[in-house]
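From: lab user (bench 3)
To: helpdesk
Subject: output format question, protein + 2-keto-3-deoxygluconate

Hello, I'm new to running complex predictions and I'm not sure whether the block I got back is the full result or only part of it. Here's what I submitted:
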Amino acid sequence: APEVVTVGETMAALRATGPIRLGPAMELSVAGSESNVAIGLARLGHRAAWVGAVGDDAFGALVLRTLRAEGVDTTHTRTDRAGRPTGLLIRENGIGDLARVGYYRTGSAGSTLRDHDVLPALDPAVRILHLTGITPALSESAAEAVLAAADRARSLGILICLDVNYRARLWDPVRAGEVLRPLARFADILVASADELHLVSDESGLDEDGAVAALLAQGRREVVLTRGGDGASVTTADGTVTAAARRVPVTDVIGAGDAFVAGYLSGTLDGLDPEARLHRATATGAFAVATRGDWEGLPGRDDLELLDRPAGT
Ligand code: KDG
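Helpdesk reply: Thanks, we reran it on our side. This is the complete output you should expect:
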């Protein structure tokens, strides 16, 4: 059985080298927050499975081929036979490391995810269920599927990690809060950026520390706060540990959050303490930032050590 199961939509991704209206060359890859995490874990030697649905089309074949080539288990992934396409993400480069992202995913195969896609993938041998706040934004059935998965995981004793990952292009904060708050109550490990905390907090008007304390009091085991280039922290019943971001040249920040989560969960699987988990997470995040693509530059075990070695050795 896989150690980690993740659930979401993975799309074909077109990366344009200039403004799309000028007809630039485009590079084809795949993108999906949850499969980025699965790839990150697989590269670090863990058994990771991705559950989702793809269209019966060449993009769907690309998604499956890519994930399988990366050693991600796709046993429970469904190919939609009703003619719905694989979703598409278009990325247009802006100035510097800024990029504009657009989706063609309404009515996609991936958005039809439902609970009987996900539940068969969960058995007691699975250690972590990884969910994001993207999947429940895709459709009613996808929202039900992640909630059902969280409920089943809890009853099987599987650790649940929820990365809030708010996507403003998919829904508004009010609706997101209504759906994510009940889901977050299942999370053992809650990952959020500081400005996403309000989407999962039951009380409003609390400052950051207050919101984190309330989440722990309500049963979250760990609250991980990410701050991009300013690092990250994890708060548990034993207190808060913080880590600075690693200093690397910034090439492409998309996917850095997913890489961070992959490193963090890898540390969790290896039984590392909070400080060491963050150390690994900031390392995997740094690889994503320093390389082009959402997942292409994610490190293997040997690469991780490179980052801690003094220059020139
Ligand atoms: O986390 C990086 C993602 O933005 C990307 O891979 C696409 O899953 C994605 C999304 O829905 O934005």
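A quick orientation on your result: The longest strand covers residues 11-16. Let us know if anything else is unclear.
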